[in-house]
Amino acid sequence: MAYRYLWTPLELGPVTTRNRIVFSAHLTNYARDGRPTEQHAAYYAARAAGGAGLIITEEHSTHPTDWPYEKLIHGFHRDVIPGYRRITDAVHRHRVPIFAQINHNGGQASSMFSRLPVWAPSPVADPLFREVPKAVTRAEIDEIVAGYALVAEHCAEGGFDGIELQCSHSSIVRGFLSPATNRRTDEYGGSLLNRTRLLTEIVAAVRNVIGNRLALGVRICGDELIEGGTTIDDAVEVATIVEATGQVDYVNTSIGVATASLFMIEASMHIPPGYAMFIPSAFRKAIDLPVVGVGRFKDPLQAERALAEGHCDLVGVVRGQIADPDFAAKARAGATDEIRLCLSCNQECVGRMGLNRWLGCIENPRTGREAQGVGTVRLTPKPKDVMVVGAGPAGLQAAIAAARNGHRVTVYEQQPQAGGQVRLAASVPNRAEFGDMIRNQLAECRRLGVTIEYGVGVWPGFVAERHPDHVVVATGAEAQRPWWVPADAANVLDVRDVLRGAGTGEPGPAEGDTVVVVDEVGFHHATSVAELLADRGCHVEIVTPGMVVGQDLGITLDMENWWMRAGAKGIVQSTDLVPMGFAGNEITLLHHPTGTNQTRIVDWLVLAVPANPVEWLYHDLVAAGVSVERVGDCVAPRRAHAAVVEGERAGAAV
Q: Which ranges carry the FAD/NAD(P)-binding domain (predicted)?
């Protein structure tokens, strides 16, 4: 068998997993009014049907003082139990065990929703929420322990096969474990044994409630990556204490603190896969309990290697199964080329959480809509000939959706290869994985029998010659110069021009040149090209009208590492500057907080500014009476997720 270790069963107390792939706990924002929903059931069931060995749900709150975000499951209310039953029944239909993660976020929260003081071991404000918590009393500690036991009882009644205690990246238990947040002088503070006391009391209380019927696991942070916080040596000692209780069946792992070093918990593509493997590896050397390893596993080969090398006993694959629910089944069938690889772009999973929206996926339009039946095959009794113009993400997704339902689809692409703007975006430093989106779509097109013709321009006469039953126009967008840039300025480039010319010898910024990049988009456009030019030896400054360069990088957890790389490469970042004009080699900038003008003398000006939709073909076809729809940037230039969603809708509607 190609993957010897992945398909080996494993016992976790009373539960046996069929394989070693875990769909680990992560937030979804699918809850309503504190209760789980049908979308939860459909979401987890899809991953169970796709072959996951074990599913662990998102956290369930154990106490009314814990309400850090709006769409949290309030496990302490009995009215969650019917929702629990729907989830567990849906997953059990696929013979997959499912555990419930239970938690109290402690000081990593605010009182905005609860209108109650935030509880923590000590009055240390969290760096994100910035609210000073109430140091809990002994009576309140007893209440916390009782809350965990109560929710565990609800979970058992709801049909779960096990309980996982979240004591890692966002938890009151982590707060007690960490010397950075626990400044107590009583029996719950000081020595590591004292700081572990709350955890062991919760373990005992939960085990007392669930008995030996359910498995019990503990998720521990191996390194908080903050000053004065928990280190790997501390974490290993905590794991040995947990094992010594004799009441725990496995240990899960994590890295970082959710509100201080979150960018390392849900790392983007700039962080190498397996970056956190030192944590489960250290645990496994110290304890005999099964250990779960996590850390951006993109494909089954990486997971198999971690198991084969003895770093862990199970592998947490979250974003990989968000992108492709059939990750495990495809791996087991030997169809690894068909796996829709996660991009680790964090745009629609992590990013949507930060915006208080439900979890989705940039390249899988079904994720987050499983309960609505999005992406379901609906074979048509009357197949049509469908022409798709453009092989970017919108056009390819339209082709996939139409072909999936039985239509005959041909895609015409003017360029010699597919990808559009995604292909360009993937050509910059540390962004190559973004290109997996097109790789994944092309693999699906091949599987569905979609024909793609390259180097073909399309105009109304061409469409008339082919006489398709329906046309989907996905012609994208093109660069445009803003009003303040002269049309004949020769030393002005769009970011697309820089990327297309990279390494081709075309005229453009060279070593020693001074370059100003104007960021009016606020995402990877300006920062990626700035890095490319800095690596080329240019002197680079990014100016933006915003308060932060690349402001949306914060949503995808790319901001911190961008700052580090920009500093190392000498890239200057200048904010609150509105471009007002460009003449010769001088750009005039209005500093809008003060109303004063600044100037820069440059060799090259590079623009990351809004694009212009290429919509003429669509309008011409409408005028000619052709059955036509348009999708993606030719409707309005946006990001890739909008292109994929629109392509799915248009293709499925044919």
A: 384-543
Contact (Cβ atoms closer than 8 angstroms) between residue 194 and residue 237: no
Per-residue pLDDT, 506: 65
Give me the CATH code for the 10-372 domain, please: 3.20.20.70
pLDDT digits (tens, 9 = 90+) for 41-64: 999 999 999 999 999 999 999 999
AA identity, residue 449: G
- Considering only the top CATH level, what class is 492-610? alpha beta
Question: Computed over its alpha carbons, how large is the radius of gyration of the chain?
Answer: 27
Cα of 38 vs its chain's centroid, Å: 22
Is the per-residue pLDDT at 505 higher than 80? Answer: no
Exposure string of 307-319, with b = 16+ CB inside 10 Å and e = fewer, is: beeebbbbbbbbb
Sorted by where each begins, the domain ranges of the chain are: 10-372, 385-478+613-652, 492-610
- Closest-CA residue to 397 (of 384, 411, 417): 411
Question: Would you say 582 and 588 are in contact if contact means Cβ atoms under 8 Å apart?
Answer: yes
Task: Tell the burial category of 472 from Cβ atoms under 10 Å away from its Cβ (0-12, 13-18, 19+).
Answer: buried
Whole-model pTM: value is 0.95
pLDDT tens sequence across 403-450: 999 999 999 999 999 999 999 999 987 899 999 999 999 999 999 999
The phi and psi torsions of 248 (rounded to 5 degrees) equal -115, 140
Distance CA 152, CA 160 (A): 9
Q: Which residues contact 13 (CB under 8 A, 6 or more apart)?
A: 162, 212, 214, 215, 216, 249, 250
Helix or strand (DSSP H, E) at 222? none
CA triple 240-244-249, angle to 5 deg: 90
Taking the alpha carbons at both ends of the chain, their separation in whole angstroms is 41
